[in-house]
Amino acid sequence: MKVKGIICELNPLHQGHRYLMDRAMEGEDPESTCLVAAMSGPFVQRGNPAILDKWTRARIAVLEGFDLVLEIPAAYVLQSARTFAYGGLRTLSLLPGFESLVFGVEEDFFSPSFQKTLARPEEDEVQEIIREYLRQGLSYRMAVSRSLGLDLGPNTILAMEYMAMAKKLALPIRFQAIARQGMGYHQKEMVGDFPSASAIRQALVQGLLDKKDLPGGQEITQNAFTESLDPLASYLDLRDILDPLDYASSPLFESGMDFRLKACLDERPGVDEAMMKAANKRQSASRYRRMLVTSLLGLEKGKIPPITFLRPLAFNEKGRVLLRSPSCPVIQKLPASNLNGPEKDLMAVNLRAQALQEYLLGLPPKMDYKQSFFLPSSH
Q1: pLDDT tens, 124-151?
Q2: In the chain, where are the structural domains located?
Q3: pTM surpassing 0.85?
Q4: C-alpha of 238 from chain center
Q5: How far apart are CA 220 and CA 13, in angstroms?
Q6: How many Cα atoms occupy the beta-carbon half-sphere of 281 within 13 Å?
Q7: Is residue 304 within 8 Å of 345, Cβ to Cβ?
Q8: Architecture field, domain 2-225+306-378
Q9: Average pLDDT value for residue range 50-68
Q10: CA count, 13 A, side-chain hemisphere, 359
Q11: How many CB atoms lie within 10 A of CB 217?
């Protein structure tokens, strides 16, 4: 069975995802090709809790066309784009037959000037230029863009990370770049046939969008939506008094971030607002959110366990075939007694992240123990 993979968050799944999935399977034999999602779980790479629980997102994904949804461990999601790319690719690489990665990009990806410079970001002199721009306070996207003399979109930057990481992992895979449709990545207006995920989430939170209008919306049982860290405010106050968080141990920490964040939190504008206030030219609000959440989860720099197991969240009969022959454990139900050492540590971070999302979103507790994989025929 041939595997085409998509690294995604599906937060939530929307028409742009449907378009990407349809294009990915265009011309493929559906009997011999599996479309597999490597998906973030309770938290997304920006450091926010996902707006829907991972089980609902995975169930919708399979009902809408994916054959298998695998969870990227939270320890790799709450990181830089490069580490996130590693987590997604490493997860997919544990499947037999993984042969191509599909991703959405801005039109700049297809320009002759970009194609000519596609390999250059990995050159040592370009990396030094990027680091210098970062030291000057530019965002990573702008630093890479300026180092190449181009203006690159966020999806194109992420595509570069996928390709660089695949090379580092020596994965003999093909890449299929598909031009994104509709509104820009951060566009907040609900306009056109392809509004951005940011616009959709904002409309859900504000009650301006009915969940039934989303693809697979009939599967969503939540009635209220949030991606806020504000419920942590009282807890952070208590930790500051009794057992201050060690931000310096976080993989996202840079000198001074702990003092800056604490000062912003002390002003009590709310956790979300404190993150925005702490953000500066050098460190984004997303980085501050990731630093906070990884500190809460006890994830330490240099101690991220390797990915050595698969966690399927949903699959159909075709996807089920893939899970019969991987060269690693497949964790379908918890507790999983066959985990030990680094595997157990990686799962422990996942469980804490899931429990934290449940607290923030008001979800039923201990979903990891009560939910099992979704198989449409048993629905």
Answers
A1: 888 888 888 888 878 788 888 998 888 8
A2: 2-225+306-378, 230-297
A3: yes
A4: 30
A5: 11
A6: 7
A7: no
A8: 3-Layer(aba) Sandwich (3.40)
A9: 97
A10: 12
A11: 14
